[in-house]
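Entry for the shared binder. Reason: the reviewer on the internal report wants the predicted structure included alongside the sequence.
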Amino acid sequence: MHAALSGLAFVVRRFGQALLVMLAILVIAFAVRTNLGDPLRELMGQAVPESERAELRKELGFDAPWPVQFGRYLVGAAHGDLGTSFIYKKPTVEVVLAKFPASFELVLGAGLIVLLFCVPAGIYCAVRPERIGARLILGLSVLGISVPVFLTGIILITIFSVWLGLLPAFGRGETVALGPWTTGLLTVDGLEHLLLPALTLSSIMLPLFIRLVRSAMLEELRHDYVRTARAKGASHLRVWVVHALRNALLPIVAVGGLQAGTLIAYTLLTETVFQWPGMGFLFLEAVTRADIPLITTYLVLVGLLFVAVNTLVDLASLALDPRVSLGGAR
């Protein structure tokens, strides 16, 4: 009973913290929106008489005190209204969400590549540290951390698109509409277009997670329960995967949630290199064309993704180890 109440208190506290963080993000977005230029200039142009400009300013509520404007902004945000794009003449939330499937599939592809390679590579480096293969993996991981993501993308394009002609170098390829969602994961052309950008984006996280899995496994393999499992006749594979890796998952999950935000941030560079039509590419277009409502909406929605992912990671950590509920000490 006490454990259940403690877990419930942990969940409530995490959701309360998430709401406070989102409020702070909205404050920052509102400050950016009100201090980056005059929205009426973008809406009406510079040749409009000042009298008409003042009338529209009053009609839109831009002449109200900032607490009133901020209150209206919060009410609009609660209803999914974060303004209208100067470029597209549509609600900014609609514009950004239309680009979300492309960015989500890019992050998903990169995450799957990291997951598929980091776990076996990290376990191998932990259980066979003296092998040449383990040393080569660790050496390449240092190189991977050192190379900027845009340079990795250019190198991959040069090798696989220009020299070998195996994979496309830009765009999203053929997509299929599933209601409001457009996906390239169901077509061969879409998967071919996804491969190079996903490899590029995964190069940021893959070296880090190989080393993280290796360190966590080395720590777990020193514990008594591993020696006990071996003494009972458990196979090496069962000891590594079922016993050691399971207990090593908690720090991996925690760091993985934090680094998911980094993947979202680095989509800006990856989408620019590969002309990938996602949220990052849209954000750069909004910055170039000074679409302030679109810029702030991107910041709010990406902030919401950060908060949601980290909250889910905290809940996953609670499921893996209930002791995390004790004041978040673990």
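Summary line for the report: The chain has one domain: 2-36+80-325.
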